[in-house]
Write a structure and sequence with these properties.
The structure holds 2 protein chains of 2 kinds.
Chain A lengths: L1 H14 L9 H11 E2 L16 H31 L5 H34 L6 H12 L6 H15 L13 H12 L1 H4 L9 H7 L18 H5 L2 H7 L4 H6 L11 H14 L4 H21 L5 H4 L4 H4 L3 H8 L10 H21 L7 H33 L1
Helix pairs in contact in A: 1-2, 3-4, 3-5, 3-13, 4-5, 4-6, 5-7, 6-7, 7-19, 13-17, 14-18, 18-19
Chain B lengths: L3 E3 L16 E4 L4 E4 L9 E3 L6 E2 L4 E5 L6 E3 L4 E8 L5 E8 L18 H11 L6 E3 L3 E2 L9 E4 L10 H4 L4 H12 L6 E6 L15 E6 L7 H8 L8 E3 L2 H13 L5 E7 L7 E6 L18 E5 L6 E2 L12 E6 L5 E2 L56 H9 L3 H6 L11 H6 L6 H16 L1
Parallel strand pairs in B: 1-14, 2-17, 12-13, 12-15, 13-14, 16-20
Antiparallel strand pairs in B: 3-9, 4-6, 5-8, 6-7, 8-9, 10-11, 10-15, 16-17, 18-19, 18-20
Helix pairs in contact in B: 3-5, 6-9
Classes of the chains: A mainly alpha, B alpha/beta.
């Protein structure tokens, strides 16, 4: 391994100022700092520094996403198996999941990191590790059957307009991964909405009658609709689709790749909270916000409005709520920065999500829009939190 | 009184090389330096030429803007070299010390019989005036101002800091005299803050003529800026002064003995120090005088006058600063660690976060070096800074205001309350490796320029 460091040092002059390939120095530095912690020393300020850097922070988020990813891989195969009645074993499902999901990752990372490298190069900045997380998130929140070219365009949109024009990681206003999903849903509504996009292989089967291992064709009575759609008819809707709370909690249901299993998401949440990388305040208050609106709806519900009767806690396991709360709303860059602000921000994310679900039957998934909207308002929340704090302080000084 | 002010936020950096309580040697200074760079924003006016003879207490340079503030030589001897930097900026005046030390006589006087004016004059003449630091901004106090209050911290929580119980154990009478003298310069109180850990044990709690306060908590509980923000926060228009405990002792000594005596016990500390302990030294002493404390054959040691968070890198030929009673020796961390950021375990690295496993060994001390452990990035994590800053301010907002040179915002977010040392821990824990002290320093510089 030391040979590698020596080699990198040897070729470094080529990429440094005045070298032949100096225009690639950002790229070189990105690889260099990826391979080893560089031997740079402190110049001004503190002479020693904490071992934590952003690469470590990002790798922890990536680790926290691994349970969801693994479950998503299996579940993709499982859903395909269910839809086509294939009678597959565990490994066949995993294999199918890998075949479907690896291309999503390839597109996400190649397009995203490519743009990231190019823009760092143009600006002469260092390549930021933020995309490690964004690239990991994007395939987990898109439908598994999304056409790869659409994904590529959406990733490009999210990275360029969502992040790079603001100056890169740390400067962006909206969560890039969610922008990617929003772009997909609003640019290709005919492809991205409806019931058939969520199950691997179904789109292709319906359009050209073939699919990977299509077997006997779609099982009778298979709808492909996500539980969220069934929940539109209230608890009866879920019951008649054969979905129990536990099914929703475990996550062997239809939905975006990584968002279905609350158990897997909770594992990630534990890691994020324990390491302090994501704010437990946001997660907790988002849950409270969702429950609050859920209970309010229960109180207002009549027999004519079955969707309002859905028990409030069901909202926590439906759709993208859990995933969004744990991994998206807590993005430290786009969420509220002040501690009080985090409580308000989280609460509103949860409350808005459930509000959209209950009162916008045309588009059930409120999580994405709720977070993006709250991303927009996070600076405003912070502004008022800070104002209040400054006023309180001024008052205190006056009394003293 | 004697309510304990409990600070929950903070961090004691577990760095190895704490000085054992023994005085290993008495340094007979050879060449010492007086450095204008020890004082923020000072424009010096040189008063000596190479070859001039000086006594301990003879002026070497003065403040160009208020020429009554003199900076004097800590030793008697001959000016050997005047070191200048870029644009002929005065960096050091080096003085070769005589074998026998001779002192300028400022007269022994009972402080109780002196009025504020004569105390001020004596301090100015002797060169001890610059030991009084003005807040806001942490600059030399203005002799024509009267401070609202004066603050002294009687303990230090900085990494490996010299223990005042040891360094000032024979100075009680001088400290008391110093406090009496300072008391005459303000209409308000002289606040002295003690550590709850040894409040009743220290002889210092017998000091009179003071407002005592007791603090408990991790670093930066011992920083006078943090203490002020809990005792009586500085608002716009306020002027308070701070004096370090050892400088208070020096002020006392001036009145008790009539001498400008800058000798002090200096803690030689740090992971690269061999047998870390104390030496009897003097302000401006050379790093060469502590040669037995290090092995610099690989030329990889950093010499820091002060502590590892706020000290100055003076280099192997450098000199101890005016205010410092600590030298920290660190190894330069120039080696590369393959995939270091991705390794699950890095047992030799400390992190305040739980992203590594150093929380499993809370009592372990680490041989830290100067590696940055990552590259500079934009602000990303928002909750790491407030965990180590027991003050009612928003550090990231303040820093962004400094970066944007927005004076109104800087005022709002508390530029008057902090100097670099108060935010040093934020810089230590910052995962984005942002030069927080240097940003704040530029911000304070801008305030000085704009508000003057």
């Amino acid at each position: 391994m030391n040979g590698l460091v020596k080699f990198m040092h040897k070729i470094k002059p080529i990429f440094s100022e005045g070298g032949k390939l100096s225009f690639l120095h950002s790229t070189f530095e990105a690889f260099e700092s990826f391979l080893y912690v560089p031997g740079t020393v402190t110049v001004k300020g503190t002479h020693v520094k904490d071992a934590l850097d952003l690469k470590r922070v990002m790798i922890i988020v990536v680790l926290a996403l691994v349970p969801s990813l693994l479950f998503g891989i299996w579940n993709t195969g499982y859903q395909h198996n269910e839809a086509f009645g294939l009678g597959w074993g565990f490994w066949q499902m995993v294999w199918y999941g890998l075949v479907k999901i690896i291309p999503l990752y390839l597109v996400s990372y190649i397009v995203g990191l490519g743009i990231e490298f190019i823009s760092a190069q143009i600006r002469g900045h260092q390549v930021n590790e933020g995309y490690l997380v964004t690239g990991m998130l994007i395939p987990l929140i898109v439908p598994v059957d999304v056409p790869l070219w659409m994904l590529a365009i959406a990733v490009a949109f999210a990275v360029i307009l969502g992040k790079e024009i603001f100056g890169g990681t740390g400067m962006n206003i909206w969560n890039p991964a969610l922008l990617c999903r929003a772009f997909l849903f609003f640019s290709y509504p005919s492809k991205m909405s409806g019931d058939t996009i969520w199950t691997g292989g179904l789109t292709r089967y319906l359009s050209d009658g073939t699919a990977y291992a299509c077997g006997e064709g779609v099982v009778d009575g298979f709808s492909g609709a996500t539980p969220l759609v069934h929940a539109g008819q209230g608890i009866q809707g879920l019951d008649s689709a054969g979905l129990s709370f536990m099914d929703l909690f475990i996550g062997n249901i239809g939905g975006a790749v990584g968002e279905t299993s609350v158990i897997a998401i909770l594992l990630g949440a534990i890691l994020l909270i324990w390491t302090g990388v994501a704010s437990w305040k946001i997660m907790f208050s988002s849950v409270i916000g969702a429950l609050a609106i859920g209970f309010l709806a229960n109180a207002l519900a009549t027999d004519a409005t079955p969707y309002l009767q859905l028990p409030a806690y069901y909202h926590l396991v439906l759709g993208g709520f859990a995933f969004g709360t744990v991994f998206m709303a807590t993005d430290p860059v786009t969420s509220a920065q002040t501690e009080t602000g985090k409580w308000i921000y989280g609460f509103l994310v949860g409350a808005l999500t459930v509000t959209v679900r209950l009162f916008n039957p045309g588009y059930m998934e409120g999580m994405m829009l709720a977070i993006l909207l709250m991303n927009t308002f996070a600076p405003l929340i912070d502004h008022y939190v800070v104002e209040v704090s400054l006023k309180r302080k001024a008052k205190k000084v006056k009394i003293a | 009184m004697s309510n304990i002010i409990e600070l929950k936020k903070g961090l004691d950096i577990p760095i190895s090389g704490n000085a054992a309580q023994k005085t290993k040697k008495v340094i007979i200074p050879d060449v010492v330096a007086v450095k204008p760079t020890d004082f923020r924003g000072l424009v010096p006016k040189l008063l000596v030429r190479e070859g001039d003879e000086v006594l301990a207490g003879s002026p070497v340079f003065a403040d160009k803007l208020s020429p009554e503030i003199l900076f004097t030589s800590p030793v008697s001897g001959t000016v050997t070299e005047i070191v200048r930097g870029e644009k002929r900026k005065l960096l050091e005046v080096r003085i070769k010390a005589d074998k026998e030390q001779r002192y300028e006589d400022f007269g022994i006087s009972k402080v109780s019989g002196l009025d504020a004016e004569s105390i001020r004059k004596t301090l100015l003449k002797s060169g001890l005036w610059p030991s009084i630091v003005k807040r806001p901004y942490g600059i030399i106090a203005n002799p024509s101002e009267q401070p609202k209050e004066i603050f002294i911290s009687a303990f230090s929580t900085a990494p490996l800091a010299a223990n005042p119980e040891y360094t000032l154990r024979d100075e009680f009478a001088n400290i008391q005299t110093g406090i009496d003298a300072l008391k005459k310069l303000t209409k308000g109180a002289v606040h002295v803050s003690f550590s709850s850990a040894n409040y009743s044990g220290t002889q210092l709690h017998k000091l009179e003529n003071i407002h005592p306060h007791i603090f408990s908590g991790k670093h930066p509980a011992g920083n006078v800026g943090v203490q002020i923000s809990h005792i009586s926060p500085i608002v716009k228009g306020d002027v308070v002064w701070t004096v370090s405990l050892s400088m208070t002792a020096a002020i006392g000594k001036l009145f008790n003995t009539g001498r400008y005596d800058m000798s002090r016990l200096v803690a030689v500390t740090g992971p690269a120090a061999i047998d870390p302990s104390y030496v009897k030294g003097i302000a401006g002493m050379s790093m060469k005088d502590i040669a037995e404390y290090y092995d610099n054959s690989k030329e990889d040691i950093r010499f820091i006058s002060g502590d590892v968070l706020t000290g100055t890198n003076v280099g192997k030929d450098g000199f101890l600063g005016f205010f410092d009673n600590q030298i920290s020796l660190l190894r330069e961390g120039t080696d590369c660690e393959i995939l270091g950021w991705a390794k699950p375990f890095r047992t030799k690295q400390f992190s305040a976060s739980k992203a590594y496993f150093s929380w499993l060994s809370p009592n372990k001390k680490y041989d830290m070096d100067t590696n940055t452990h990552g590259e500079p990035r934009a602000f990303v994590l928002s909750n790491v800074y407030s965990k180590v800053l027991p003050m009612d301010i928003y550090p990231v907002y303040l820093l962004k205001a400094c970066l944007a040179s927005d004076i109104d915002k800087m005022e709002q977010f508390g530029i008057y309350e902090v100097i670099e040392e108060d935010l040093a821990l934020c810089e230590f824990v910052c995962p984005s490796k942002i030069g927080i002290q240097s940003i704040l320093s530029d911000g304070i510089g801008l305030m000085l320029k704009e508000m003057a």
